[in-house]
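#lab-general

N.A. 3:47 PM
ok so I finally got the sequence cleaned up, no stray characters, all 565 residues accounted for. can someone with queue access submit it? mine expired

B.Y. 3:52 PM
send it over

N.A. 3:53 PM
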Amino acid sequence: MKQLIECVPNFSEGRNQDIINQVADVIRQAEGVTLLDVDPGATTNRTVVTFVGEPHYVVDAAVKLIAKCQELIDMRNHHGDHPRFGATDVCPLVPIANITMEETVEYARQLAERVGKELNIPVYCYENAAFKPERRNLANCRQGEYEALKERITSKEWKPDFGPNKFTESVAKSGATAVGARDFLIAVNYNLNTTSTRRANAIAFDVREKGRPKREGNKITGKKVLDENGNVVMLPGTLKGTKAIGWYIEEYGIAQVSMNITDINATPLHVAFDEVTAKAAKRGIRVTGAEIVGLIPKKVLIQAGKYYLAKQKRSLGIDEKEMVKIAVKSMGLDDLKPFNPEEKVIEYLLEKEDTTPKLVNMTCTGFANETASESPAPGGGSISAYMGSLGAALGTMVANLSSHKPGWDDKWAWFSEWAEKGQLVKDQLLALVDEDTNAFNVIMNAFGMPKGTPEEKEARSQAIQDATKYATEVPMRTIETSFKVFEICEAMINKGNPASVSDAGVGVLCARAAVHGAYLNVKINASSLKDKEWAEMMINKAHDYVVKADQIERRLMKKTEKVIG
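B.Y. 4:20 PM
back already:
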């Protein structure tokens, strides 16, 4: 499986669209990477770029991007509201798929070394890539910003990890760059119904992990309290794994609390939103919404949607897109401008890059017509999986209707749990619709392999056998997954809204048909395998499910008829 990392360079230009386009074009034209997002900010005079790819391609593309920023941006003329010390200010790498943080650190250090050697830019390694504990915190590396860089890079304590430690003309123009490896970070700004930066800062100090300095007497003007080592004593804020400041955004005409959530497990987005809202309210200020800077993982919005639905005592077993919509509306992510999940959620952007046609994306009519055509796929295996998904959908529907039934408010959580199970099973079966057709295509590809030499014949024969085994395993997974539909439908037949019991009954019939149909596919595919022992085991296993499915179907149909009658 491919290793994927994300790169999120922040460069110091957010106003000149020509420069922004030139920098983004470097990534668009780079080999092996996909540009996901370009998010400029005029007030901060800063642009966040997000791209993904295999590690070595990402490192190459990042070097090219930093070189382009070095060419186009002169830090001697840069001003903006965001802390910065370089043309490419920061360039973190984030593990996305099939790669550890330790491996990502190695790539980050490779990138840092190349930037230092090839581009002669001072580089500090931060977060997990830091060589020294005090350099893990980006704020420490960037202290004093660009204006303090001339003195800092020549000091023994803050000599760069890579690149020059002299303030040459080239360094004066490019500034320094921080290269890191970190977990996914959410950059979010909370919109306030005030123009006061001081009030926004006060709220930021209330919540950020670092908190605010402890003072003697007056909390604002009092003398800062120092510890025995002469360091300022801090009163911690309420949110772990967060950094925050307050600022005024001229283009929106409002103040914001600008926050980086560096540990989304310790502080999920919805928890941060509610806490900022609560602290703002105590100061007579209202949070009108939030602004996501860059991209966000899908799971963050799903968690938020579930959180806000639970507060409403509504079923959590709803479609993913509806769940995302609940999250967007609950936190006002579309307050300042439209929030399009297809453009802001990293998984959706990656899915858009996959141009392989999917059966499940067809209309009902299109799917039926494609099945009826002379093309051999989709066939019975895909149809079986789809029937199973419809059974799960029907059981889920009854659970959702029951959870919202007047007078049943005390039962909503129980029905919600069943609806969530149903959504999961439905989605698993929908995935199997396409996987079954893909398995058939793998067999066809194997049959199309050359067979001109003995070696080619042997390779072709082995490929056919491997593909056939895979094509046997897929419908077996359909059987096992469809079997879970019975449990969901039975719960709804027993305790769901009686007015919808017929829907749960039809769900049972769909599940039985799915098991029977997938069994036929297991049997026909396994029969052509040379490994007869494995083939017989799979057929017998599938047949056992068929026998059980028939018994369950008869029992549940009697229950359904009884409720109806």
